[in-house]
Design a protein that fits this description.
This protein has a six-stranded mixed β-sheet, with helices on both faces. Strands 7-6-8-5-9 form a five-stranded mixed β-sheet. It is globular and about 65 Å long. About 6% of the residues have low confidence. It is of the alpha/beta class. Helix 2 packs across helix 10. Helix 6 links the parallel strand 6 and strand 7. It folds into two domains: 162 residues, Bordetella uptake gene, domain 1 (D-Maltodextrin-Binding Protein, domain 2, 3-Layer(aba) Sandwich), CATH 3.40.190.150; 117 residues, 3-Layer(aba) Sandwich (D-Maltodextrin-Binding Protein, domain 2).
Length: 326
C-alpha cells in the first residue's frame, strides 16, 4: 500500500473514532462533580438562580453541581477562569448582561465573550423597575420624571449599584431616549443605593425588582415603570416604561449559562436539555417567582444570537455615552 493512501485511511479512521467518542462522552457526562462558577457574591438573583437550578441538575444528572462564587471586576474574574478551563463540561458559568457590556467597558479584557465560550441556555429575565421615594407627592408617573428632569437639567439624580451595571445602563438608556440630563450616582452595590433613595439623598433608581419589591410593597418606594418590554408578573399593575410614556425603551437584565469554547456539542445539548427541563418544574418556577425572575429556557443557538444582538446594542450605547467602569 502506498504512503499517501495509508495516510488517508488513518485520517478516515481517526474521524470515525472521533464521531464514535463524542456521543459516548455525552452519554458518560457528567462523570464527576461540575463546577458552576457564579462571578458575583452570594445573595443576589444570579446566585439564587444558580443554586436553585444546581440542586435540580445534581438530581437529574447524578453528579453534584458545586456553586463557586468568584466575584470581582464586574464578573470578569469568574469569566476568565471559565474561559481558560478545560472544555469538557466540568466547568460552567452563569452570567448576565455583563457578558455583552464588559467588552466595551474594559478595553483590556482577557477573554472574548463570543470566541471563548459555548452558549448553553438563556435562563431568565429579572426586570429592573424605575422607583422613587414613596413620599414624593409630585412624581407618580414616567412623564412626571421626564418633565421634572427637563425643568432642572442635571440637578435630579439616579442611583445605581455601580458603573456599568444594568441599573446604571437602565438610567443611561432612559436619559438618552428622553433627551434629559440627570446625574448618575454610583454606589458599591444595590443595598446602600436603596437606603439613600429611601432616605431622600437621591431621587430615582432603576433597581432590580428583586431588591425593590419589598420596599414597594411597604410603601417606602413608589414604582413608576418596569424596564422590560412587557409587564412583570411580580408587579402586574406597574406599566412598562415604554407604555408609561417613553416609547422604545427596553432594558431586560438576563441570566444565561455558558461553557468554555470547544465543549463537545453533545455535552452542551445534554446540559441544555437538563436546564430547560428544570426550568419547567413547579418548585423552580416558584423560587424564581419569589425573586421576580421570569423563566425562559432556550436553545444554545438562540442564546448565541441573543448575545450578538446585545453586544451590538450595548456597545453602541456605552461608546456613544462614554461610559466607564469607574
Amino acid at each position: 500500500m502506498n504512503r499517501p493512501r495509508l495516510h488517508l485511511l488513518l485520517a478516515a479512521a481517526s474521524l470515525a473514532a472521533a464521531s464514535l467518542l463524542a456521543p459516548a462522552h455525552a452519554q458518560d457526562w457528567p462523570s464527576k462533580p461540575v463546577r458552576w462558577i457564579v462571578p458575583f457574591p452570594p445573595g443576589g438573583a444570579m446566585d439564587a438562580i444558580a443554586r436553585t437550578l444546581g440542586e435540580k441538575l445534581s438530581k437529574s444528572l447524578g453528579q453534584p453541581f458545586v456553586i463557586e462564587n468568584r466575584p470581582g471586576a464586574g464578573g470578569n474574574i469568574g469569566a476568565e477562569l471559565v474561559a481558560k478551563s478545560p472544555a469538557d463540561g466540568s466547568t460552567i458559568m452563569i452570567t448576565s448582561i455583563g457578558m455583552a457590556t464588559n467588552k466595551f467597558l474594559y478595553p483590556r479584557l482577557s477573554y472574548d465573550p463570543v470566541k471563548d465560550f459555548a452558549p448553553v441556555s438563556l435562563l431568565a429575565v429579572v426586570p429592573n423597575v424605575l422607583v422613587t421615594n414613596g413620599t414624593q407627592p409630585n412624581v407618580k408617573t414616567v412623564p412626571d420624571v421626564i418633565a421634572a428632569a427637563k425643568a432642572q437639567p442635571g440637578k435630579l439624580t439616579y442611583a445605581s449599584a455601580g458603573n456599568g451595571t444594568s441599573i446604571h445602563l437602565g438610567g443611561e438608556m432612559f436619559t438618552a431616549l428622553a433627551q434629559v440630563e440627570m446625574l448618575h450616582v454610583p454606589y458599591k452595590g444595590s443595598g446602600p443605593a436603596v437606603t439613600d433613595l429611601i432616605g431622600g439623598q437621591v431621587n430615582y433608581m432603576f433597581d432590580s425588582i428583586t431588591s425593590a419589591k419589598p420596599h414597594i410593597q411597604s410603601g417606602k418606594l413608589r414604582a413608576l415603570g418596569v424596564t422590560t418590554a412587557k409587564r412583570s408578573s411580580a408587579l402586574p399593575s406597574v406599566p412598562t416604561i415604554a407604555e408609561a410614556g417613553l416609547p422604545g425603551y427596553e432594558v431586560s437584565p438576563w441570566f444565561a449559562v455558558f461553557a468554555p469554547a470547544g465543549t463537545p456539542k453533545p455535552v452542551v445539548a445534554k446540559l441544555n436539555a437538563a436546564l430547560v427541563q428544570a426550568m419547567k418544574q413547579p418548585e423552580v418556577k416558584a423560587r424564581l417567582d419569589a425573586i421576580g425572575a421570569e423563566p425562559i429556557g432556550s436553545a444554545p443557538e438562540e442564546l448565541g444570537v441573543h448575545l450578538n444582538h446585545e453586544l451590538a446594542r450595548w456597545g453602541k450605547l456605552i461608546t456613544d455615552r462614554g461610559i466607564k467602569p469607574d
